[in-house]
Amino acid sequence: MTSKIENQTAFVTGSNRGIGRAIAEALLQRGSSKVYAAARDTDSLSDLVARYPDRVVPVPLDVTDQEQVKAAAATAQDASIVINNAGALGSGSLLEGNLAEFRREFEVNYWGPLYVARAFANSLARNGGGTFVTISSVAGLANFPVIPSYSDSKAAAHSLIAGTRFELGRNGTKVIGVYPGPVDTDMTKGMEMEKVSPASVAEHILDGIENGIEDIFPDPFALTYAAPYEAGHKMLERRTVEMLSQPA
């Protein structure tokens, strides 16, 4: 199921910086009629609003606040593309790291997208199904020991993608999972590794939306995970869905 960006209305969480900002800008450049740009601090969106005053609607949103998510969804009832981008990254070993940071990762990376899915499910169905995108990570497919709790939270997000794909799909919503490798954002500052730009990742995500790609690996590092994923996780997801779809 393909979905052209032009003339569609989109809702993007965490759109004030990094991948989220790049996605919001790319949507506008591709002709999105309106972008609801969600962020905890809407003042950080002032430059984007100034450039696109008739097409950008700033929305105050902390994705860990379920009531605020519901209010944002009520504001953006006309959205046909919803993109879960807001993310959190903690640090430390599983045995000695800060548990409050670990909980924050799950609040943002798992519970946030779940709140968004529940809040937008009905309006997406009314708008013909639309597209629901959640950004996980290759670290959600195989635990990276240097960021173990983040990997755990992104593994939960990966499982959520499969679950929402099954449930939202019954109402015609296309659910897309995104699995980036290292991206040059504030989140990865201080990590010495080769990184791609947020703009490049955003373009690959929008290409995937327009071409109906279900699982997007938006950079060279991520692409090294695509074939093993297809042979493992994806095969098991399809097998489970087929089993659950059989008549009783």
From TrEMBL:
The UniProt record lists the keyword Oxidoreductase? yes
Q: In the UniProt record, does the keyword Oxidoreductase occur? A: yes
Q: Give every Ketoreductase domain span.
A: 8-185
Question: What are the alphabetically sorted keywords of the record?
Answer: Oxidoreductase
Which SMART domains did the record assign? Answer: PKS_KR
Question: What GO annotations for molecular function exist for this entry?
Answer: oxidoreductase activity
- Highest taxon in the source lineage: Bacteria
Q: Which Pfam family is one of this chain's hits? A: adh_short
* Family affiliation: Belongs to the short-chain dehydrogenases/reductases (SDR) family.
Please identify the protein, giving its name as recorded.
SDR family oxidoreductase
